[in-house]
Write a structure and sequence with these properties.
This protein is of the alpha+beta class and 204 residues long. The protein has one helix and nine strands; from the N terminus they run αβββββββββ. The termini are far apart. The relative contact order is 0.14.
Length: 204
């Protein structure tokens, strides 16, 4: 009897173990199926977090370089030399060159209001006593008698003739320009009192 009871108990135990193994196997299969299909387990989120969209790179604007006017091609013309007398001495003024231009020189120059600039390159030399140099002592008279004053540098031609007093033997050079229509004109030099000291005719 005891042998029969022992064999019965062994069968019962083995049967229970087989049932338990089947349940464990089923649980493992379901768990693996859940991972493969994205099933949520214990509140875990499904799928992977979405990637943030890349920040677009701002486009940098390349500044357009400003175009500079093409330098004007001119041919300087040599002028004469005239003798002058002042209140305290005497000297000579040489019109080294003159040019007609239709535009100013440099980015800050103003365009001519009358269509052209007459640019005088002058050299003043004191030959006796002292001689006062002043760009305002140079004037321009048009063909119809209109008088023009120097531009005093707004045309951009440099160096502008500076005001100074010359002793005997000294020389000063510089530019005096006029905004004037291109026509036959007369350059008039005056002394300190405004009296005409000399003049030079220039053709257009």
């Amino acid at each position: 009897m005891e042998g029969v009871s022992a064999r019965h108990a062994l069968r019962t135990t083995l049967s229970a173990l087989r049932s338990t193994g089947s349940v464990l196997t089923l649980v493992g299969v379901l768990a693996l199926s859940g991972c493969a299909t994205g099933v949520t387990v214990a509140g875990a989120p499904t799928g992977l977090p979405s990637e943030a969209a890349p920040t677009p790179t701002p486009l940098l604007e390349t500044p357009t370089p400003s175009s500079s006017p093409t330098p004007e091609q001119v041919t300087p013309v040599e002028g004469p030399t005239v003798d002058v007398k002042g209140a305290t001495g005497a000297g000579r003024i040489q019109l080294e060159t003159y040019t007609w231009r239709t535009q100013g020189q440099g980015s800050k120059a103003l365009p001519p209001e009358h269509g052209s600039y007459l640019v005088l390159d002058l050299a003043w030399t004191a030959t006796e006593g002292t001689l006062t140099v002043n760009p305002l002592y140079v004037k321009l008279r048009g063909g119809d008698g209109t008088e023009y004053q120097p531009t005093m540098g707004v045309d951009g031609n440099e160096p502008v003739l500076a005001t100074r007093k010359l002793n005997t033997g000294e020389t000063a050079t510089g530019i005096v320009a006029f905004d004037v229509p291109r026509e036959n004109v007369t350059v008039v030099f005056t002394d300190e009192t405004g009296i005409q000291a000399a003049q030079v005719a220039i053709t257009a």
